[in-house]
Amino acid sequence: MNQPARRGTLASIAAELGVSRTTVSNAYNRPGQLSEELRTKILQTAEKMGYPGPDPIARSLRIQRAGAVGVLLTEELTYAFDDQASVEFMSGVSQACGEMGVSMLLIPAGVQSDGKDATALVNQAAVDGFIVYSVADEDPYLEAAISRGRPVVICDQPAGREGVRFVGIDDREAIKPVVRRLVDAGHRKIGILCIRLDREPNNGPVSQERLAGARMNVQRDRVTGALEILAEAGIDTASVPLVERHINDAGTTEDAARELLENNPDLTAVVCTTDSMALGLLRYAESAGIDVPGDLSVTGFDGIPQAEAAGLVTVRQPSRTKGRLSGEQLAEEISERRKAAKNRKSAPSRAQSENPPAVYLETTVLDGTSIAAPRA
């Protein structure tokens, strides 16, 4: 009976070609140190002898590099691939990873996860660093990522974390132009629809205490910015109805719109803190026979293609650019740490750059047809 052919090894290829094992290794790991002719000869011989190349796990242990970036998400993966803003963000991260020559590992940080689960999952991730995408302040996944000692970049929230690089927008100021347009059009009876303000669910009206203590600063800041414009217009912000939903999908956004409008039939305008929420409101309005903008004016936030197609007046944020810059910031942090280690400088395991940059991107207003003067 024929015995199966033995697969080639690094040593057998070196012996076949009369070169050192280091030379064969360099063909895979340091190609610039070999002539193109020699490298091609080594790779061709390896293929002929059935050698697949260095074991990636062994290689990562040897050089202490995983060749991957971990992206921590607050949503389930199914939702992350449905939400257009998240898709744009991950596309930007993917672009940066491609330029870095590394892979991207998605880690769904469920909103109800506890610290034990978070620590276990983060510690098992074979990555060189983490991009933390839009989590609550004191989120266990964020704490686990920082505690592990790998480089970390936060995108969107929480902002202002000491010693950690940040990429995002000024949500509080970004929402103000579209709210001001409602006020300038004559609206005074205005409601607000928002998504998750904290890790603990609340599907209903939002109290002033919950808003003040909210740990999801993106939504908190958008609501706060909207209320500041309403206050400037002489509107009693304590009387402005605010309805929250914990999940930002089609069913819950339509239900939020129903709750807000059924309980406040005198509203002439609604500020939505996401385009998904605004699109849910438009679907509900159509089913309820409410004309937009004739009976009700609506604004959104994100600038996703579906919002533009629907004619929403909305805030467009550069989600893809945020993802790309988050990846680039992480690459810089990883590079700086490696240089520090190479130069035998002190590089504490939990420390980031001493004065890490915070990158704030500009937003624009997308003109649409969803605002008109209030009904008489």
Compute the gyration radius: what is it?
26 Å
**What's the structural domain tally?**
3
Major sheet = 7 strands, mixed
The CATH class name of the largest domain reads Alpha Beta
CATH H-level superfamily of the largest domain:
Response regulator
Q: What's the tally of helices?
A: 16
Fraction in beta strands: 15-25%
CATH fold topology of the largest domain? Rossmann fold
Name the helicity range. 40-55%
Q: How far from one another are the termini?
A: 93 Å
What is the mean predicted local confidence, pLDDT? 88
* Order of secondary-structure elements: HHHHEHHEHEHEEHHEEHHEHEHEHEHEE
The helix-and-strand class reads alpha/beta
Number of strands: 13
Taken from the alpha-carbon principal axes, the silhouette is elongated
Present the secondary structure layout.
Layout: H1 10-17, H2 21-29, H3 36-48, H4 56-63, E1 68-73, H5 77-80, H6 84-100, E2 103-108, H7 115-124, E3 129-133, H8 140-148, E4 152-155, E5 165-169, H9 171-174, H10 176-184, E6 190-195, E7 204-205, H11 208-212, H12 217-232, E8 242-245, H13 250-263, E9 269-272, H14 275-287, E10 297-302, H15 305-309, E11 313-316, H16 319-342, E12 358-361, E13 364-366
Parallel strand pairs: 1-2, 1-3, 3-4, 4-5, 5-12, 6-8, 6-9, 9-10, 10-11
Antiparallel strand pairs: 7-8, 11-13
Description:
The chain is of the alpha/beta class. It has 3 domains: 45 residues, 434 Repressor (Amino-terminal Domain), CATH 1.10.260.40; 145 residues, Rossmann fold, CATH 3.40.50.2300; 147 residues, 3-Layer(aba) Sandwich (Rossmann fold), CATH 3.40.50. It is built from 16 helices and 13 strands. The strands form 2 sheets. It has a 7-stranded mixed beta sheet, with helices on both faces. It has a 6-stranded parallel beta sheet with strand order 2-1-3-4-5-12, with helices on both faces. Helix 2 packs across helix 3, helix 6 runs parallel beside helix 16 and helix 10 runs parallel beside helix 12. 40% of the residues are buried.
